[in-house]
Each structure stands twice: as structure tokens, then as C-alpha cells.
């Protein structure tokens, strides 16, 4: 899940597991009885502490890949939202930059003016 508001994006810095030591969107495995969209909303709540509305989430892509030296094909659905409710909070999985959201240009090191 990627949450964008204008030129800013909410990301989590993964403390453990897949993506450890990197800024990531939020997500994880689909639980039995869940749709991929429901899983993205649940995982975002668990990892970032924010709520998303089902109608405010959009599927924006699908990826398939393998890791070098491994035979397992990963299938990932990518979701995005332009809004959330609540205040981002650190979880056992991810911490967040404070205050607020990162500017996309900060991630790409292309900002002309520092925040």
C-alpha cells in the first residue's frame, strides 16, 4: 500500500522481515477469507496505525518476480490511497519519519528546496 497526498508519501522503514532496512509501502500476506484489498487495508493498519476506507483504495499494479538463487515466484498486488484517517504510529515491524510524510523528491534526492 502506498499512501500519497500530493507530493508526499507515507512509508515505513522496515525493522524486520521482507524489506528490512529499507523504506517500503505497507503490506503482507493475504489471510484466509480475505481479498487482497482487505489484506492491504489490514496490513496498513497493523504496520502504520492508520485506517483506510475500502472505497478510497485503488489497485495500481501487479508484480511477479523471483529472488536470485530462489525458485519461488512472488506475486504482489500494489494498492494506493490518497487519504487515511488517524496518526501514523510505529509498530513492531516499521517506524515512520516524523513529522508527517516524506516528499517524493526527498526519496529521489531531487528536491530543490529543503523541507
UniProtKB/TrEMBL annotation:
Top-level taxonomic group: Eukaryota
GO cellular component term, pick one: nucleus
InterPro entries per UniProt: 8ODP (IPR003563), Nudix_hydrolase (IPR020476), NUDIX_hydrolase-like_dom_sf (IPR015797), NUDIX_hydrolase_CS (IPR020084), NUDIX_hydrolase_dom (IPR000086)
GO MF terms held by the record: 8-oxo-7,8-dihydroguanosine triphosphate pyrophosphatase activity; dATP diphosphatase activity; metal ion binding; RNA binding
Location of this chain's protein in the cell: Cytoplasm; Nucleus
Family matches, as Gene3D superfamilies: Nucleoside Triphosphate Pyrophosphohydrolase
Domain Nudix hydrolase, residue spans: 1-115
Entry keyword Cytoplasm: yes
Cofactor entry: Mg(2+)
Protein name: Oxidized purine nucleoside triphosphate hydrolase
Amino acid at each position: 500500500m502506498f499512501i500519497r497526498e500530493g507530493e508526499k508519501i507515507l512509508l515505513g522503514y522496515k525493522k524486520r522481515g521482507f524489506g528490512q532496512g529499507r523504506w517500503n509501502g505497507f503490506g503482507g500476506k493475504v489471510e484466509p477469507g480475505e481479498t487482497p484489498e482487505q489484506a492491504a487495508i489490514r496490513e496498513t493498519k497493523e504496520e502504520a496505525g492508520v485506517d483506510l476506507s475500502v472505497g478510497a483504495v485503488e489497485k495500481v499494479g501487479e508484480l511477479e518476480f523471483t529472488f536470485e538463487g530462489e525458485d519461488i515466484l512472488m506475486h504482489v498486488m500494489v494498492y494506493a490511497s490518497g487519504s487515511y484517517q488517524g496518526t501514523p504510529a510505529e509498530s513492531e515491524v516499521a517506524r515512520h519519519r516524523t513529522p508527517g510524510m516524506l516528499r517524493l523528491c526527498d526519496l529521489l534526492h531531487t528536491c530543490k528546496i529543503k523541507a
